Amino acid sequence: MPEQLTSDGEIVFLTYLNRSGSTYLSAKLSKYQEVRMGVEARFIDGWITPGFSICTEEELHSYLDTLYLDNKFQAWKIERDELVNRVSALSYPLRFSDILLAALSLYQGRVSAPRLLVHKCGEYYRCVQAIRQELPGAKFIFVNRDPRAVFSSQRRSLDSQTGQPMQKNILHFLFGYLDTLQRLKELDNDPNFLVVQYEELIANEAEAMCAIEKFLKLSSSDQETGKSDYFSSIPPKQRYLHQHVQSGAPCSARVTGWQQELPTAYILLLQTVLKNYLRKKNFSFYTPPKITLSDLGQFMMLLCLYRYEWAKRKLFGIQHRY
User: Which residues pair with 119 in a beta bridge?
Assistant: First the structure.
């Protein structure tokens, strides 16, 4: 591997569910001089997205043709010739990690190479073992958030590509969230997998960042002075989703905003299905000030649908997929 590319131990993956606060944390990490904090892009990686195969120079250029059509990757502002030159010294077949590390090393290039390259990709907590086959020293950070707040924010936020709400189906969300909890449970004792709680980051930023610094072997004195410019690196079509990042101030009102945004029946369903998890995380249960017979009827209908779907998935071995 060319000397310019980072070693296996220098790559960090920031993972999350949409609307969990990952961009807010990204802005915090971008202030450290030893960190190069990337933005999202839609890679065909062979880890989450199947179809990665680069065995010849022709296949490399075909892959890059597709990659450079992605408006998120375009925001990385990497000259194609530079990327080709960076991987040209490698032997075929190429691994996706070769492409990723080359791109990250060129992204927002600085005079001195950073110690840590951080790649932001929500779903990579699903394929930790596959990633470690290529990058055995990789570290992972998962940004966790109260599921009621996550669903509320996804329900209100429009996808920058489709223009549609990120999530409308509460049952789809619930089964996906249960799958996420199971995957996180499997990684409980992994020393190179850190779960960061969004609510703790907002309530006590210094303590939360101290844990992250310890995990990444960073020093608080390494932070650059002034406000992070991470917001400017976000593709323009996505910036409306991250106004709090531009201000640089923690948005504490968003911790409980879901209480006013979600229909009562949805709150009751989420708190019923996820009650054990919410208790484990010491989240407070919320009782809406007014619960009507209509709310209760809708809640009971949704609960019956959830139980029916749960039994069907259990019987036929259908995987919960977010």
Answer: 13
Cβ atoms of 12 and 192 closer than 8 Å: no
Would you state the structure tokens that stand for residue 193, as one six-digit string? 């997998």
Map tokens 């001195």 to a residue.
112
Average pLDDT over residues 189-195: 96
Residue 4 has a pLDDT of: 36
**Contacts for 218 with CB less than 8 Å, ≥ 6 apart:** 32, 34, 35, 116, 212
Helix count and strand count (H, E) for the chain: 16, 5
Distance CA 248, CA 243 (A): 9
pLDDT at residue number 53: 92
CA distance 86 to 108: 15
Note if the pTM is more than 0.85. yes
Q: Quick one: pLDDT at residue 292?
A: 97
| Domains of the chain with bracketed CATH | 8-249 (3.40.50)
Residue 159 in tokens: 């996808």
Q: Give Cβ neighbours of residue 58 (< 8 Å, ≥ 6 apart).
A: none
Q: Identify any residues that bridge with 144 across adjacent strands, giving them in sequence order.
A: 197
More confident residue, 149 or 36: 149
Reading the block at residue 320, the tokens are 């919960």
What's the DSSP call for residue 288? -
Residue 307: HSE in the Cβ half-sphere, 13 Å Cα cutoff:
8
The DSSP-derived string for 193-221 is EEEEEHHHHHH-HHHHHHHHHHHHT--GG
**Closest residue by Cα to residue 103 from 72, 89, 82, 134:** 82
Does position 235 have pLDDT exceeding 90, yes or no? Answer: no
Cβ partners under 8 Å of residue 285, min gap 6: 271, 275, 278
- Residue 271 CA to its chain's centroid (Å): 24
Q: How far apart are CA 246 and CA 238, in angstroms?
A: 12
Q: Does the pLDDT of residue 66 top 50, yes or no?
A: yes
Residue 307 has pLDDT above 90, yes or no: yes
Each residue's pLDDT tens digit, 26-36: 989 988 988 88
Going by C-alpha positions, the residue among 163, 215, 212 that lies closest to residue 192 is 215
